[in-house]
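Think of the structure tokens as a kind of shorthand, similar to the way a musician reads notation: each symbol stands for something richer, in this case the local conformation of the backbone. In the example below we present two proteins back to back. Begin with the first one, reading the sequence and then the tokens, and try to describe in your own words what changes along the chain.
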Amino acid sequence: MYVQRNWLIGGLWYRFGDAIIATLGVQFKGFKLGYSYDITISKLSNAAGGAHEISLGYRFHSKPKNAGFMPINIPAF
């Protein structure tokens, strides 16, 4: 699940039987900066703990090509 309010993006994921992932990010003029933390809930939790991830992205603006198909909307992060 993703929620976006203006420039702030938040999300929560559940990977069946394995992990819960919390995401928080910001976007500004084509740039996106995000942070996520994976909380392991499987039997590996003692050995694996959790994982931190930082991501940086940039969306290049280009002219769309008319290929005769409809694009699919994807999550913002």
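Once you have a description of the first chain, move to the second and do the same.
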Amino acid sequence: MSIQAAESRREDVVAKKRYPDAAVRFVLDGLEFTVERSHGPVSPQWLQVARWLSRHNLEIGQLARLFDEGRLPRNIRRALIAVGGPGAFNRHVSGRDLCDGLRDLAIQRWGWMALHVLRHWGVESTADFGRIVFGLIESGRLARQPDDRIEDFDDVFDFREAFDRSFAIRLQPSVTDQAAEPRG
């Protein structure tokens, strides 16, 4: 498939799902946020292995086999050992974890307006996050694990409750109120 065909296919998937580019970018940012929160920051060795995989058009799933067969260049093998081996290279997060991360990132970015921003983009439930993620998988921008299912994103939490309960107005007594209180 040509680059133009792949790009066109990606656009078709995103357009078919009715989500604007800003929503897609937010989900990608949220994935990065969640992965880092779950697995820690990316090390230089991890980046070295990732770039090598990309240059050689290889999947993460092929890494363990190449490692076991001794078919990795010495520098890549050392980098992989430094990150903890082929198993540690996988920085996968579950649909539930991603939804929680997206909620937290939305609240961090937009505070009490988070629900309104997401709704403006047509994102009204955690299932919408799943549709965006699987659209990105279909377009080749994200990879999935064999046990990943779009249903993993269904009803992870209620949007209104998740965003509204995060914001409670807590009134602090003012200096004037405190001075007026009787002292015992």
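Compare your description with these statements about the second chain. The chain has eleven helices and no strands.
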